[in-house]
Amino acid sequence: MKFGTKAIHAGVEPDPSTGAIMTPVYQTSTYVQASPGAHKGYEYSRTQNPTRDALQKSLAALENGSHGLCFSSGLAAIDAVIKLLNPGDEVIAANDLYGGTYRLFTKVFAKYGIKFHFVSMEKAIDIEQHINKNTKLIWLETPTNPMMNIIDIKAAAQIARKHQVMLAVDNTFATPYLQNPLDMGADIVMHSVTKYLGGHSDVVMGALIVKDKKLNDDLAFLQNSSGATPGPQDCFLVLRGIKTLHLRMQRHSENGRKIAEYLKTHPKVDKLYWPGLENHPNHDIAKQQMRDFGGMISFTLKGDSQEEAFRIMERFKFFSLAESLGGVESLVNHPATMTHASIPKEERIKVGLLDSLIRLSVGVEDAEDLIADLESALD
Ligand SMILES: *Cc1c(COP(=O)(O)O)cnc(C)c1O
To answer: CB of 258 within 8 A of CB of 252?
Structure first.
């Protein structure tokens, strides 16, 4: 099955009791048993729910995995991965991560005795020097949020395999439409389903997808034991969102390209970050591992003035100033004070996350209107 067909059909069967083509919202906490233990595979909705099952199967198919697991947020999904580890274990993480991931690692899990090393992975070979006998996991995002760095997943997977360390890839920005990390050797794919998979800015959810049964069983144990599972209504909304994932991603990528082209020569723009640009430092790797380049774009202003960045962001008509990304509507964000405010200033400056950095989540509106909006806001 090709991607668009999977997006519409994978994991979804007509409802066995009525034939309903859309997966029903099984809004139930429990399931009646004829006699103790005689159930139909469903006992209690934290553990199993048919609406969630359909979504988990759909996600597994989209990422070419064999198992999908949904969580009540992206961070809850990451939380489950780190709970696979024990005190004394070490994690090598990319130094340019979603702010909430950095906070979860440094403020929650560090105190349980798990050690995190934040390193540049722009050259994947650099990962190897940080591996020691306690290393259990490599964690990366690509493209990264918000600097749009590209990390070579295949090369990272080779290093992980050589040292018998797990590799987890946060694939939120690329989505399975643009990139499939499991095919490149990753062990775990993570998504903030809140973003492109949901796609309509109406759900907060996370997911993990794996190929290995034992890894799935361990994660499913944590999913049920820690209990951060999503409700059936949210699962339904995401199942519905996924039906147009391929169509949305095509338009996000097309609009992303048009807007990057427009900003490339704008006199107020200093640095422009979009992996589809030929001068992007890892453009060649992006071309190899991604099918297109998506609609996430960041840029800084000449003179690096935060006030100027604020002034611009307040003047948009169609780009709404908000956290989050990946919805049908265009959003603009100021990472230094919004999504990435939990990262210390010295750390963020090191990776180029300057005070004037503006991040765009380019929606699926008409590109002409979006460019006109940029033109008047940047004026
Ligand atoms: C939003 C986001 C997360 C966190 O997901 P939530 O659903 O907000 O908990 C993790 N990684 C990336 C790249 C994100 O954009």
So the answer is: no
Q: pLDDT tens digits for 194-250?
A: 999 999 999 999 999 999 999 999 999 999 999 999 999 999 999 999 999 999 999
Separation CA 136–CA 230 (nearest Å): 28
| Mean pLDDT, range 240-267, rounded to an integer | 98
**102 confidence band (pLDDT: 50, 70, 90):** very high
List the chain domain ranges: 3-242, 245-378
Contact between 94 and 68 (Cβ < 8 Å): no
Ligand 1 pocket member 256 (CB < 6 A):
no
Per-residue pLDDT at 347 exceeds 90:
no
Task: Tell me the CATH architecture of domain 3-242.
Answer: 3-Layer(aba) Sandwich (3.40)
pTM for the full model? 0.96
Q: What is the dihedral of CA 310, 316, 322, 323, to 10 degrees?
A: -70
From the candidates 52, 79, 98, 248, give the one annotated as an active-site residue: 98
CATH level 3 topology of 245-378: Aspartate Aminotransferase, domain 1 (3.90.1150)
Atom of ligand 1 minimally distant from the CA of 144: 13
Distance CA(255)–CA(149), nearest Å, equals 20
How far, in Å, CA of 261 to CA of 285, rounded? Answer: 20
Ligand 1 center to 74 CA (angstroms)? 5
d(CA 209, CA 3): 16
